[in-house]
Structure formats: C-alpha cells, structure tokens
Amino acid sequence: MSPTSTSHPRNLTTIVATLGPASESPEMVRALILAGVGVFRLNFSHGDLEGHARRLCTVREVAASLDVSVACLGDLQGPKIRVGKIGSEVGAAHASGGGAVDVVPGQEVVLSREVDTAALRPVAGGFEPVLPVTYKGLIDEVKPGDKVLINDGAVRMVAVERDSARGELRCRVVVGGRVSSGKGINLPDTHVSLPAVTDRDWECATWGVEQGIDYLALSFVRDAADVEQLRAGVCVGGAWVPIIAKIEMPEAVANLESIIEAADGIMVARGDLGVEMDIPIVPIAQKRIVAACRSQGKPCIVATQMLETMIENAQPTRAEATDVANAIFEGADAVMLSGETAVGRHPLEVVQIMSRIVAAAEAHLAGQPQVHNPPTRLAASHRGTAALAHGAWHIAKDLSAKAVVCWSQNGGTARYLSQNRFNIPIVAYSSSPAATRQMALLRGVNAVLSDPPGSGTLSEWNARVDEYVVSRGLASAGDAIVLLAGRPLGQAKRTNTLAIHKVGEPLGFSAHRT
Length: 514
Hints:
Blueprint: E1 14-18, H1 26-35, E2 37-43, H2 49-66, E3 71-75, E4 81-82, H3 88-93, E5 100-103, E6 108-112, E7 119-123, E8 126-132, H4 138-141, E9 147-150, E10 155-163, E11 168-175, E12 177-180, E13 184-186, H5 199-211, E14 215-218, H6 224-234, E15 243-247, H7 250-254, H8 256-262, E16 265-269, H9 270-276, H10 282-296, E17 300-303, H11 318-330, E18 334-337, H12 339-342, H13 347-366, H14 383-399, E19 404-407, H15 412-419, E20 426-430, H16 433-438, E21 445-449, H17 458-471, E22 480-486, E23 495-502, E24 511-513
Parallel strand pairs: 1-2, 1-18, 2-3, 3-14, 6-8, 14-15, 15-16, 16-17, 17-18, 19-20, 19-22, 20-21
Antiparallel strand pairs: 4-13, 5-12, 6-11, 7-8, 9-10, 9-13, 10-11, 22-23, 23-24
Helix pairs in contact: 1-2, 1-13, 6-8, 8-10, 11-13, 14-15
C-alpha cells in the first residue's frame, strides 16, 4: 500500500459539504475536494438509497484518484413531522396554485390525522384548509395554547382546540405564508412521543453500515439514551460507526453534557434549533455547545445557513462571512454547507469562499498569543496518549515546529492531538482506510494511508515522514517537527514515544517515552 494524502493540505478547520443535484457529478466532487472539502454529507431526508449509493461511490472513486482521505457522513432524518400531500386542485382553489395553500393571520387551519390529502372545508365567508400530517399522534399531544410552526417557523400558528374524536387540531394563524406538501412541522411547546430512531432511520443506518459509511448523524436527539439506542443497533458484530448527535431541541441543550459524553461528535443544527428556541437564544446555545465539546474533546460541527444567500447569489453577505469566522473563533472543528452545495447555483464558489474565510480566521488566531486549553474530561485509560499530545503542543510552540506527525492506527492519537488545537498541521499515518477517512473530520488532521515500515522501526518511518512533509510544502530541511508513535508501528494503542526531529537529519533519540 503506497502512501496517500491530500496534495494540498486543507485548512485546519474542516469544511463539510452536502451532496445533491448541484454537486453530485464526479467533476464537481473533484473540484470541491480540491477547494477544501474534507467531509461530504449524504442527507437521508431527501432522495433514495440508490441515489445515495451513487454519491458515496463517486466520492470514494474521486478521492482515491486524488490520493485524498475524505469522509462521508450519513445524516438520518429522525422523527421529523411534516405536512402531508396538498393537491394542486386545493392550491388552485386557495390562492397558491400548485400543491400549496396560502394562509393569513387570523385564519383558522385544521390539522387532521384522518385525511390523506388536503381538503377545503366550507365555512362562513369561504373555506378553511384541512391539512394531513405525517405523525398521527400530533393531534393528541398538542395542547391548546401550544405553538405549531411550519416551514422552519415561516408560518406560525397556535393551537386553539383539539377534537380527538374527529382526529383534528384547530389552529389559528399568527404569521401567515405558504404551506406546501412535505414542509416540516415544529412543536416547541409539546413533548412528542415519537421514537428517536424511526423505521426509515434504521433502514438508512443499516445501509450505511453495510456500505462502510464513515459517520452517522442522529437528528432530534433528546438525551444520551437516544444516542445509545442507535449505537446498540448499528455497532454489532464488530461493526463500529462514529455517531454525531445533532443538537436541535431545547431538551438536548438541557441534557448537553451527557449527550456529548455518549456521542463521538456534535452538530449544532441551527435550523431546527432556531425554530424550537427563541432566535436570540441560539447564539448563546451555540457558544455553550462548542465550549462543552472542547471540554470533553469531541469534534463539533456548526451547521445551517452559514452562507445561505449563496444558494442564489455569487457572494455571501458580510454577516454570513462573520458568522463563519465567529464559529471558528469559538472553537468549532468544522463548518457545514447544506443547500448551498446540495441545490445551490454556485456550489464550487461557495466552498472556495468558505475556504478563504476559514483561512483568514485561522491566520488571525495564529497571530494571537497562544493559550493552551486542552480537554478537561478524559477517560483514565487514555491519559498516557493525552499527556503526550499535551506535551507535543508545548514542544511545538517552544520550537516553532512546522508540523506534528503521528502514527495513529485507529485515529485515537490524531484525535488527542486535534483536541489540543495546534496552529500547525497534524499529519496522521494509518494503514486503515476507514480510520484515515474518519480522521478527515478532525481539526488540523491530514491523514496518510500507508503500510507500516517493513522493519516496524521509527527510523525507517522517519525517512517517509521527511519525504512527505517536504513534498507537501509543510516543512523544509532543517525545520523542527514533532513525532508521536509507538513500537511496533501499525498496532493500535501503542503510542508511547514523543520525539523532536529536524527534517533531513537522522532520528537521534531525544525522545520521551511514557
């Protein structure tokens, strides 16, 4: 197995891009990788598994042709409640045309579990819409006075009367707008009894495990038990898939610490979070979530509407650029694009601009006094590796090292190094294709797929490292780098050596071992 890597190392902060009709071609996937994408998101809320299989295959083939380690994240839909089918005849009769209806403030709308397709019911002075819902229990669980929000809160209603016998919930429109088939319904005041992992989620998760997907994201997490339920279902028979818990409900924010502990990473899913919570609270929740992830050493993705206007426009707003930079200043490991790359008009340009914003933010941070703030909550079994990573940060700072290089067979050492938030690249070697792909999410990590040296010695590996860092422009002859590894190379949980090395010189052992 020959070493493979990114020819042009990405920024330290990972860019996650959602695949869709605008970005799924091999040519576009290639361009997006070269522009800086490290993780591609497959959104299981849209499309079918056959289409996602094609996208996954495209990413794997293009990444292999570029010698790049790129991860694929499968985003489970979760128990999303949606408006059912609205026929064109209903829309045409009720001002919208097509499969949608327009509602206005003060109007009453009926949500029904008994109808399969929207209807118009005659009332004094006109008609009222009767809309089907995908979750039949909604009628029994929403109480009068509870808010009912449609289309990410664009349409806002309040429940006024529940008729369980007829299977109907009458709502009064507070903020009007257009309601179309399949739009999401949020119930911020209601405890919903839907399971955390739906039948559709299990189907997608099982498919993802079979396909060797690199991460699964669980939507609408309420507590740590939701994460453990998914893990118990997919991590069986030797299979293991890291789980990203999406924080998008007030319940999840309340249970944040235990959710982070149970998950392998966190996504700040600001779309639904901004609907379920008051908008002014969302920035505060984001800062709290990112800080809690840093404390526990778990990667954190900030997502949703980061460069939203670029779905249509060729440039973002200044506020959007500031939003991306602020996420990095707060300590996010990754920033995510959704509709911007999935269906937008400028998928390549949006990644290029995000990459430039990320680079500028990282350059600003690099120019600030460096403060070491490692995770405070670590498992006792990993404290040796964590201590080496902690020491590597100080050594790299004191020597102005150009890179930190490790052998990280399953990605553990790379994770501990990433948690220390170096302002220089981390190069992580492994002979595991799955591990190198998963490391693509980690801040600062450039994964290299490589067989261990035949002798298994550090000196033979050192020659490879020198060639790599020089050829990639990470360091020049005579520059200091920091090495972490174990003996023999290629075996997991063996990291016990920390060495200071000058590129191009023999590895003399000014090394420290645990």
